[in-house]
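During the reporting period the student researcher (J.K.) took over the structure-prediction task from the postdoctoral fellow and processed the backlog of single-chain submissions. One of the processed entries is reproduced below for the supervisory committee.
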Amino acid sequence: MTAFIWMLSSCSSDDSDLLSDNDSNKSGLLLNVKNYLGNSENIHPKVLYFETPWNGYKYWMSYSPYPKGKTECENPCIAVSNDGINWTSLGKDINPLFREFKSGYNSDPHLVYREDKDIIECWWRAFIEVPEKDLICRRVSKDGINWEETEVVVPSGKTQERRLSPAVIVEDGNYVMFFSDSNSIYETHCSVMSKEFKWSEPKVVPIPKKNLRFWHHDVIRNDDGELEFIINGLAPGETNNSSDLYYSKGNMSQGVFTEPVKIISRSSDPKAFDHRSIYRGSILKVDNKYLIYYSAIDEKWHRHLAIMIGETPFNLKHP
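J.K. obtained the following structure tokens:
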């Protein structure tokens, strides 16, 4: 994986024309997370919460800058917070965790905490244009500042076998990864004892489709042992840039999941930051409340991060 020199100006954004109007009854709270490019146009949030601050912070987020859809700017980054609303980079700014390739980009970052080793891991999808293929990569850190070298954990092959939006949880010492092929969500797992990361044959997560295609997603395991998903659902004729956020829960062992229910919709206000699309979200449960972080696209193609909170995923409100 060879990095190349890039021009910061190509990834810059004029924040003066960003849309920030939002309807507090329908839209979340807009978050101002400044990235290493000097703007706040970010997508793909994944947030972890620590009741006792981990290395000084209760909330840790992975995300990727994406000003006006410029893939050369799409690289995994880390932000931290102690209230879940106000975010900052670490004192020693380590962003981005990986620079772009000569031919390709890095997308779909996902943050994982290994309680057994007291480390965090940032996973992401690397897309190589020549030859065309996907890779799932990760970097590991004991403190969030110093990171080990990049590893390829899934050397995916043809794009027909692509693995998008890796959402990873650790259970009983094993990694369980849920990925998308832009249509359905799949589950695969491997033992942490395997240095070669030999993954099991993927199985479709049997979430009823309701004529939807599934794009990005996040997942947690609740206290009842159920998997809770939030999913970007694409209705017939829609693209990944015109989606809403859906919720479903169920159990792989029983093979039963609830029908997806729309929990965050695009705003009807053309001036709203989330008018064009709701993008990848992060589901988190803190003190019996659901915190849904999500990315969104406005009418002028700017990207944004926001949060909504609720007692359940079905009564989310502006904080």
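The committee noted the following: Confidence is low (pLDDT under 50) at residues 1-9, 16-25.
J.K. will present the remaining backlog at the next meeting.
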